[in-house]
Give the backbone structure.
Amino acid sequence: MTRFGPIAAVVLVGVATIGAGALGLRRASRTSDFYVASRAVSPRWNAAAIGGEYLSAASYLGIAGLILVYGLDMLWYPVGYTAGYLILLALVAAPLRRSGAYTLPDFAEIRLDSVAVRRVCSVLVVLIGWLYLVPQLQGAGLTLATETGAPRWLGGLVVCAVVLTAVFLGGMRSITFAQAFQFWLKLTALLVPAVVLVAVWRGQGQPAAAGYPRASAPASVTIGAPVTVRLPVAETLTVRGELDGQPVDGPRQLAAGEHRLGAGSVVRLRTGDVVPVRSGLPATANRSWLRPFGSGRDHPLYADLSLVIAICLGTMGLPHVLVRFYTNPDGRDTRRTALSVIVLLSAFYLLPTVFGALGRQYVPDLLLTGDTDATVLLLPERMLGGLPGTLLGALVTAGAFAAFLSTSSGLSVSVSGVLSQDVLRSRPGPVRAFRLAAVAAITVPYLLSLPSEHLGLAAVVSLAFALAAATFCPLLVLGIWWPRLTWIGALAGLLTGGALAVLAVLATIVSPPRSGWAGALLAEPAAWTVPVTFAVMVGGSLLTPRHRPAGLLRTLVRLHAPEGAALDRGRPVGEL
């Protein structure tokens, strides 16, 4: 029963997603059905669909894991994820819908009349989409491995198969039905266990232990690969395997500091034992964990500010979010959709915080393995056990796979739209080109997810936000609200911001963790890359005033005039 429940949950979610895709197939017959659902999605339906694809592995699993490790400072993630829609609502949503574009590169070409800018935007959409997809597939592997013991590569493969089936069936119209259903499933899958687990916690009357995280119950932790761990205080631990280069099998008195555990070693924790912390994670006391800037990261004030900038400004540059606003009938419905999304996200993001706080007390052994993203998955069985824990664990697993499928579907559609228009150029026919592009859109990130060292899901997603904030945010804000933006200025800014953000992302993912200012600036690059991009776009445009597009006035009127207004009124472009 322990493994049957999660497997059944994954199967049911997959079948429901494909069933929604089949429903979309019955209504998808034109190209616009595949790209933007014929621009006929109602605000409430679209808001639920946006919530479905926006609440990714980072939201469902990653935030709780980050709160378990870093504490109060990580609440900026849910705040930023929600506040980003306020900025999107105020600056971008309605004008972007009025632009008449299918994709973000379409908007860039319409506004700037430049094929070069369009091509750079296409490359950035693909990069952001793939960077965002990798943690979804890694999260699927983690979930299936944690709940069923399956190999990690299988979870991502299941997600790829279901997403491709749904996208092949009906494109954007198909996944709209699926994502709306998946949002409510995710909300229910966290809400019900959260209520039950809080009631259990209150019934047990166990306050958080003072000092450092301690095992709340006996646990055996198996070390997969050799790892260095840190003990904040001296402790006697039972270890079987290799410890500090020596074979051991039994209790060992360990001094405070770093120790090396070999592959396959088993650490047996007794109730009350201080949990060793994997190298790279901060070994903070519970009192510091509850204080602002007590996360143990270098330069926490800068890190928090840069994180907020990345998430709030990066939201408007995420291609799978922006493509959703092209599906509304008009600008008024687009604003109503964005407002509804804020309400839905605000309700959802209360829940991962609860799991993260409970995880610090009931699953602190995840600090030893580093698999803190499994907090949400393990809590029900740790706190309840038996059949109730198994059933709640299956419900949580269903919600997790709904998160992976919904976000992966939205990203696949947005990347497929760009690849089919700008790479395949609809040579096999628009619908067939879209389907072929979908294969590349999901297969490449799956292959990248296989050899990658498992990083924090929310941390990797924040890097995608940082790349979007450093490129598309300046392009959209200046393109919509500043008439003097030229294609040369926009191109220079995109290349500069994109290059800086990509280098920071690669340095963070590929190289060992850095300390001090170098590590903080590379791990959270938005605070300096976004101003640089704005400056380059503005400066480049002021130096090239003759390169404004000929139809600028008509484009700006289309972006800002009420729906259906005439587009031929106004002054000549030279008078702007």
